[in-house]
Amino acid sequence: MPAGVPLIYCPVDLPCAVWRALRRVRPRMLVLFEVEFWPNLITQASRRGVPVVLVNGRMSDRSARGYARHGWFFRGLFSRLRLFCVQSPDDVERVRRVVGGAVPVFSCNTMKFDQTPDATARDRRPLLDEAFGPGPRLVLVAGSTHAGEEALVAGAVKALRAEFPPLRLVLVPRHHERTGEVERVLREAGLSWRLLKPAEGGGPAPADPVEVLLVNTTGELMDFYAAADIAYVGKSLAGQAGGHNIIEPAIFAKPILHGSHLENFRLVADVFRAGQATVEVGRDEDFLPALRALCADPARRAELARRARAVVEAGRGAMDRTLDHLYAVVPPR
């Protein structure tokens, strides 16, 4: 957080808790993000004369149908907002189907493109040297993986190691609580590994170089994306759906692999598809050939990296557009 900006928890959405929080904080504006609709918070803020706005909003077809089905409740709730800033023209239409023309709705693109790397991001190359040993390496970072994806990625790496000896894997499961489960997957795949954080009572880390670094902590993914040669973004194959944020490795100009199930990032995925900036894998059995093709073609990797970064640069500006709308409601001091 910026200096001088306190961070507090949002109150539980009960009338008494919300009333006390608003009385204590006395906000000039209540800014909700994406899909955070809290009925008591919205209602009480509005009654106090606090402008309520939604930014970086998104509304799926399913959500729009649900809100419309219960319009007797949501129409009145949403009408308390001063404006909606949403991610796409499709989101504009879905919101308007629920609230009508009572509240202004603006398409501002997604703020996710305005992410920037942390200037104090840690250089993970020394740690990779320690895990993988000296010499050339080709590092695949599989980020935010879920059950089934670790086996798919590990199997592909195992199959390609003879063809591409420098290939190494950094595996970053979405939930580090699954570390034991993922270790069993690596054992069954016949890959050697070490943990980023040694397990308590688990003995020392392997002395010899390993094939896989298993990240069993949180908050490390962006650092490892920065150190990747190829990135895979999880929750998009092996029976998983919804996807994770492909902008994260694109920020660092990395060639990106992902599955076709990016339902939670539809707008982002469409922009990258239009820019031909990633490799999208439609079926599990296509993952290994896609990875092989990238391992074998450095020029292709460089071109995908360039395109991914170009998509990020072209997509930026949503934050400035959103702030223009917010300042029209409450001018800055």
Care to describe what's here?
The longest helix is centred in the last third of the chain and has 18 residues, at 298-315. The strands form two sheets. The protein has a seven-stranded parallel sheet with strand order 7-8-6-5-9-10-11, with helices on both faces. The protein contains 14 helices and eleven strands. Helices cover 42% and strands 15% of the residues. 38% of the residues are buried. Helix 7 (149-160) links the parallel strand 5 and strand 6 (167-173). It has two domains: 15-109 and 317-329, 3-Deoxy-D-manno-octulosonic-acid transferase, N-terminal domain (Rossmann fold, 3-Layer(aba) Sandwich); 125-315, Glycogen Phosphorylase B (Rossmann fold). The protein has 333 residues and is α/β, with parallel strands linked by helices.
Descriptive tags:
333 residues; alpha/beta; Rossmann fold; 2 domains; seven-stranded parallel β-sheet; four-stranded parallel β-sheet; 11 strands; 42% helix; 15% strand
CATH superfamily of the largest domain: Glycogen Phosphorylase B
Named CATH architecture of the largest domain = 3-Layer(aba) Sandwich
Number of individual domains:
2
CATH fold name of the largest domain: Rossmann fold
Name the helicity range: 40-55%
Kindly state the number of beta strands: 11
**Principal-axis shape:** elongated
Instruction: Please indicate the percent range of residues in DSSP E strands (runs of 2 or more).
Output: 5-15%
What structural category do the secondary elements indicate?
alpha/beta
H-E string: HEHEHHEHEHEHEHEEHEHEHEHHH
Q: Cα distance, first to last residue?
A: 20 Å
Strand order of the largest sheet: 7-8-6-5-9-10-11
Please, what is the average pLDDT?
Answer: 93
Query: Largest sheet, if any?
Result: 7 strands, parallel
Q: Which consecutive residue ranges, at least 5 long each, have pLDDT under 50?
A: none
Per CATH, the class of the largest domain reads: Alpha Beta
* Rg value: 23 Å
Number of helices: 14
